[in-house]
Specification:
The chain is an alpha/beta fold. Helix content is 40%, strand content 14%. The protein has a single domain, classed as Rossmann fold (3-Layer(aba) Sandwich). The protein is built from seven helices and seven strands, in the order βαβαβαβαβαβααβ. The structure holds NADP nicotinamide-adenine-dinucleotide phosphate and D-gluconic acid (GCO). NADP nicotinamide-adenine-dinucleotide phosphate (NAP) binds next to helix 1 and strand 2.
């Protein structure tokens, strides 16, 4: 086996959901540099245009589509459009996600449902849309962006933890059901990554000191820092490429060691 191009995605079509910025943007950019043709979506034209401008600035060619990943009709139409514009999807990254931080006993049921809908139901909806063509072509890669909360709980994130725990099991089930078609479905479990989603947890205090949660994460991470979106690109390339053709149903935690560590004595 020649390993020179083992991480190459040349000629592959990759759809990264919710990738106007943040983790999805970094993964889509890395895939483009590895040779893939990239499609991304966001929920409205303004956000898609913003994303397109960021990719253009970074010198990355992509196609952007308006699509709410919770809307099955829109997902089916978007998959058909991507197939027409770029070719059938070889690599799907279920990245779009939201979080609501509210104590569970105060959480509105509508907020709970929205989190489960975007973080768990949507990966099912988008994977369902791309699977038939992957099965027909006997190959495909599905990467679900999981979380520390696929393994751990913490106060205020009940819906998110329930969804990301479910997403880990959906990952294992897609592997179980479609491995025979040479489809690999794996997860990435990012640790605490500096993106807009976690910005409220890093806000400076009025006196200029660190947010207590920021200090807590530094103390809880053996690497003693927050992750960057670039920390996730190598692992994503591995799971999207032929380098991982016999890796299936796995969640690769990219967390600077959080899950291995009991934490510092205060
Ligand atoms: P982010 O900065 O908030 O980006 C999330 C993206 O998803 C945004 O582009 C957002 O678009 C999009 N999105 C939300 N709802 C959508 C919908 N219904 N349809 C289409 N797109 C939608 O988050 P991130 O930190 O990059 O997180 C990306 C993924 O990694 C998420 O699944 C998140 O849970 C997971 N994750 C993040 C961390 C972390 O520390 N940051 C750690 C572990 C896992 P809008 O512009 O419309 O909001
Ligand atoms: C939180 C965080 C997280 C993450 C992430 C950790 O409030 O605890 O936002 O849940 O961003 O998913 O892996």
């Amino acid at each position: 086996m020649d390993h020179t191009d083992i991480l190459s995605l040349k000629g592959k079509v990759a759809w990264v959901t919710g990738a106007s910025y943040g983790i999805g943007f970094a993964i889509a950019s890395a895939f483009a540099q590895a040779g893939a043709k990239i499609a991304f979506n966001d929920i409205n034209q303004e956000l898609v245009d913003k994303g397109l401008a960021s990719y253009k600035k970074a010198g990355i060619a992509v196609k952007g589509y308006v699509c709410d990943v919770t809307d099955e009709d829109s997902v089916i139409k978007t998959n058909a459009l991507i197939t027409k514009d770029l070719g059938a999807v070889d690599i799907l990254v279920n990245n779009a996600g939201i979080i609501r931080r509210t104590p569970m006993h105060e959480m509105e049921v509508s907020d709970w449902r929205r989190v489960i809908d975007i973080d768990l139901n949507a990966p099912f909806i988008v994977a369902k849309a791309v699977l038939p063509s992957m099965m027909e072509r006997k190959g495909g890669k599905i990467i679900n962006i999981c979380s520390m909360m696929s393994e751990l709980g913490r106060e205020t994130v009940s819906a998110y933890a329930a969804a990301k725990g479910g997403l880990k099991m959906l990952t294992r089930n897609i592997c179980s059901e479609y491995g025979k078609y040479n489809i690999q479905c794996n997860g990435i479990g990012p640790g605490y990554i500096a993106t807009p989603q976690t910005a409220p947890l890093r806000e400076k205090q009025a006196d200029g000191s660190r947010h207590p949660f920021d200090s807590f994460i530094i103390a809880k991470t053996p690497a003693e820092r927050w992750g960057t979106t670039e920390d996730l690109t190598g692992p994503a390339l591995f799971l999207a490429s032929k380098a991982s053709d016999f890796v299936n149903g796995h969640v690769l935690y990219v967390d600077g060691g959080i899950l291995a560590y009991i934490g510092k004595q205060p």
